[in-house]
Amino acid sequence: MASTMPNTAALSNSGDKTEKTLASSLGELVQASKNLPRRSNGVGSLRRSLAEIRRRAVDMRKYNKEGAKRNPYSKVHYLMMGKGITIEDMEDELRSIDVRPVGSDASAVVPGRRQAAGKAEKADGAGAFGDVGDYMAAQRHESILSAIEQSLSTSARDFDRFVSDNVSAEWKKSTRNVESALQSILKPAQQPQALAQGQAPQPQPHTGTFDKEKKTALAWRSRPSTNILSAQYTFGDVGKDAGSAVRANPNVSLALRRKFELYAQVVYNLNEARQAGHWYPICTVFADLAKHEMTTRAKQMHEAWMIVRDVCGEGDAEREEAKQRRVAGAGSANSASSTSASRPARLEERKFARAYTGEEAQLRQKIVARSRAYLEEQFLDHVTELYAKVAGGAAPASNAQKVQKFVELTRKGKNGKWKVENLTFVNLVPIWATLFYLMRAGCYDEALALVESNVDGFQKLERSFPLYMRAYCASAAHALPADLHGRLANEFNQYFRRLGAQKMDPYKYAVYKLIGRCDLARRDLPSVALTTEDWLWYHLGLVRESGSAGADVGAGSAGAVSAGSADSASSAGADGAFDGPLQPEIYRLADLQQAVVSLGASAFDGSRSNPLYLQVLLLTGQYERAVKHVFESSEMDAVHLAVGLAYYGLLRVAVSAGGAESTLGAPDAPAIRLMHVSAQGVASIDFPRLVGHYVRAFKLSDPRVAAEYLVQICMCQNTQNPELEKQQIAICQQAVRDLVLETREFVILLGRIDKSGSRVPGVVEKRRKLLCLDDSAAFLHNIAEKAARSAEQEGRPYDCILLYQLAEEYETVLATVNVLLGDFAAAADFRTPLGPVVQADRILGEANIVKLARRLLKMYSGSAEMLARTSASRRHTCDALLQLIDLFVDFTSSAPDLVDILARVKSLGLTPCSPDLSMDQIRAKADEFSALDEPLARCVPNMLIVQMSCISQLLYDLQQGIDAVRFDRLAGSQTNGSKDEKIRQLRLMSKYCMVYAGMVQYKMPQEVYRTLVSLEADV
């Protein structure tokens, strides 16, 4: 340690020496900097007038001339000669410099101007430098204008900054208030699970205020677009594994395109039928289309459409119509009148809407009955197909024989033994199994015949069963009266409780439970192998919705099975007799729906070749969940299924509030829900966004088809919520307007107006009845005019012109055209020819506004109706702007007729362009400037430049003696005067033009007035 001390001291001493050396170097640099040359060395500035400077310069030059008596600057002359600098060369170079004010040369403005000013000879030194006084006056005037403009710019910036600060402060204050209010309602993000489980929040370590606010702050995101055609939203409740299937584009493959076109044709035919007030069998048509596809999904959709078809009654209506056609063809009026009494209810659009949205029990019972009938018919077809394979070419058999053969084939093993134990045989026939499957096939007459033909075969306890069976089959709802139901329940409790599950015939137990709805607390069937269809048919048989005692024992609110039924069953089993009145047992369609949802799709889609979850959802009346389930695999099928259900009113519609609830604290893109479920468990579909999500894939390629689909959103009549109907209609009309603006296919969608003023309707106008627009005026106001306003807000003036034209707002069309014409004329560049630009089909990628304005003026002039709906002032402004543009085109041509241009400027009467004017007339013209339409007023500066440029060039040509004859066409009091008189007239016109410009200079851009001053200097 001691050995290191000297080294440290040495390092310290060397550091001190280095610091002293640096300090001395810095001191020397400071002293040396004082000797550097500076901008001001104490020499006084020269303060001489321009006249004194000019006199001294002349005196200095005269000693260098030949013959001078003395030259006091000879030494300087020789000194500079020694360095290679000659005074004569410098003098020649200074004389060759043109020191006129910048911009005084008008050749850059006037086409064809000769560069002759630089070649003129200067008489003396003063003439070479020009009029210095005029130059300084122009500079002083320009400085004044610059100061004024700078003051205005500073004031504008200060005002904008003041407004921005105040608006930002108010916005931040409002944001803090809303955020604090929401934070007081919502739970902190770091404790959602603990609070949900009822746990006390854990204490957190102390952190700063900023960190605490940062943790509890809400994640603010912008609301998703209210435009249902926007690609900025997704369905948050749809499985992400759907992938590209959900976002399928019909144009990606030929097969998908073919399917898209077929389905679009069906939608078109549907709209045609709706518009004509006719019924359209949409389910049958879609079922036929799906039948021809050879895929598992197509087979599934075919079955789905057939289920909806049977529920809606399309098959009954078609059979009845065919029967009526046959009767009408036979010419039997009596038969026709006799069949009219048994005619089913006429199918029409939205027939079930009021009952379905109102949760009416009658409709639910109809859904149950139709679903059972569908399953029974499906099972009978399966039995018949199986019998045909086994029997071969045998004689036709009855339904009872087919069912008996089915029981033998499915319930017997290969060894000939029955797979099910404790079967009851009567005449070697398993009577209860055959009876069960006859009922399963819907053969109730054959089942009753089987029972009555084997009455002697029933035991003493079953003597009353034929009576129960007869009443059950005779009932349209397949329900026992209250008295028979009580007797059957008593027998069920006595027999099956005493016998036990191991010793009884399982099919006898199933038949008793099905007919008498006994012991609903235990709805399973032990020892009976049931397929998914069998299970669903059995549960549909237990469901009751009506309130009568016979049809529905135990009607009540939807819910679980009451505990009283289980208690009564227990007491009956213990005492051996039915003790007390039968307690009502509740099992409604809502209970079955809840059971299906709780099981989920995995319980019914076990077979990939035959998934059944969609069919189960439709058979149980869960149409909204069915649409959502189909959407996860095929968006196209889901949309058309929803359209078919909505056509009959079997789809509950819920309009999303814009997805605001999903934007709070959402780290992903804003998402909304396809299906909404209320607190009561009622599901509904966001039908507008479902259609919009599908349409946005082909809205640009097929706008006509997109419009046909969007019309379906208005299919919302006959509900019990008038506000929802209004909201649906408003969303549909807004979607149509968005489609018009995004596709810009105005002629296809909205139509056009021909030269005679008559309308040629487009797709949207043809469907105005389906859009709930009563007449043409409503269509023009709600679609075309509002779309035009939206385009105007988005800064799309060319779209505004077309939309306002379709809305028959001709005055607004002219106003918009005038603004565009004024913008074009005010931005004209005189350095390049305007002729090719005006003659082109498009200008800067948009329509040629000049050609469009000419066509519109011609159209309005040719139609008395259009002419009466436009003001004369608008037409005059448009015509004046077109004349101005023609004038500018001629001015920028290669050989402009300047005299004719001045004459046309005078004829327009916007600016003073005559030598025979008084100051009062000029002031009157300046006063008229404020009264001009804004598009015209914006063109006056360019018009003044054209006028002054023409005068300057004409004056120059006149002075040079070029084509003096053409000046006789100048408008003036002395058109045939002398050359001096014409020069005087031109200078008067220039003077009056500048006087007028000085009166309105603060209403024009500064560079315009600067150019005018430069042109005046040439004159």
UniProtKB/TrEMBL annotation:
Family that this chain belongs to: Belongs to the nucleoporin interacting component (NIC) family.
Composition bias, Polar residues: 1-15
Subcellular location: Nucleus envelope
Start and end residues of each stretch annotated as Disordered: 1-44, 190-215, 319-346
GO molecular function: structural constituent of nuclear pore
PANTHER family, sorted: NUCLEAR PORE COMPLEX PROTEIN NUP93, NUCLEAR PORE COMPLEX PROTEIN NUP93 NUCLEOPORIN NUP93 DEAD EYE PROTEIN
Record's protein name: Nuclear pore protein
Biased amino acid composition, Low complexity: 190-201, 327-344
Keywords annotated in UniProt: Nucleus
Originating species: Dekkera bruxellensis (Brettanomyces custersii)
This protein's record includes keyword Glycoprotein: no
GO biological process: poly(A)+ mRNA export from nucleus; protein import into nucleus
InterPro entries given in the database record: Nucleoporin_int_Nup93/Nic96
